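May I ask you to review the protein record following this short note?
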Amino acid sequence: MSKNNKLNTVPDEKGFFGKYGGKFLPPELEEPFAEIIESYNKIKSDASFINELRYIRKHFQGRPTPVFHARTLSMDNGGAQIYLKREDLNHTGAHKLNHCMGEGLLAKFMGKEKLIAETGAGQHGVAVATAAAYFGLECEVHMGEVDIAKQAPNVSRMKLLGAEVVPVTHGLKTLKEAVDSAFDDYLTDYKNSIYCIGSVVGPHPFPLMVRDFQRIVGIEAREQFLDMIGELPDVVCACVGGGSNAIGIFAPFLNDPCELIGVEPLGRGEGVGDNAASMTYGHEGIIHGFKCYLLQNEDGSPAPVYSCASGLDYPGVGPEHCYLKDTGRVEYVTCLDTECSDAFFKLTRLEGIIPAIESAHAIAYALVKAREMKTGTILVNLSGRGDKDLDYVLENWEMKTK
């Protein structure tokens, strides 16, 4: 078996991607997670489930989303040609709905009445609230107070969709604490609820399940790129926080001769608490029921993190990304806030596309990579739109006039 083919055999039955992942849970959650695993294994190959999900994707989400040649941006930058997988055009404005509709459908199959979730940038929260509205379920979204202030438009959208938004007031009041809070609530109501984890993180089967639902991004993009160009992209690039948008576009390209690059937030720099670059500065550890590269304090507890992108400020990362790093199949690099800001304004002014700050990290590195390559093609997963970020941008970033 070749190395690349081996990549498609993970996780194992216990949810491990090599030595990462797994299921580290309090005893009272063992049975609920066993129920989720059993239910997902039943429905993932069930024709009626697949057909309903396909209907939802086409008629509700608006899939497939297009691949767009950012010609003006490429010409201005010089070098390789940059293409964008437009997940910002997916219903609700980001890739998150791809797995949230799948998780909502699973909840209905399991007879659950409520979706519980965490959110950072708010895109996952909006997607979960949308899924709950679609399937007629209750919804509770936990969100740190810092992110509530940064992402006010998404908070309003969640409430309009009928979700209860639970402010999280402890710790740094951001994504990690929101996950803590959501898990605590799930512990008290797991018989009636399902926890819709927002990325390829958490205990098994969520890294597997979210990847499976997000693969549609890469499946579409691969076919679309071949149809447009007649060959595969030289590079496929995506931002990485927990890593759902990245694994979604990477997975269908794993056996292809494409360079795969994940871009982490370097934030203000290399110091502890100044970034959220788990793959670059983290070490093996356990957080929220799974093992991964983790930014840690000296005592092994999760270290404080920072990013201008609320959806990327998490001290851990998806276990499959850790495995792909160790195998060498994917390269993981970093992007400073200042570089992200420059890319945000360039894409906005040159192409008329306002990206999510998370996605702007991938655009920033693609610009650097394109100049290094000089020729060839780069496919970027534009994972979300920037409507949610406008207040933050106007208050914190100097407006670029050119």
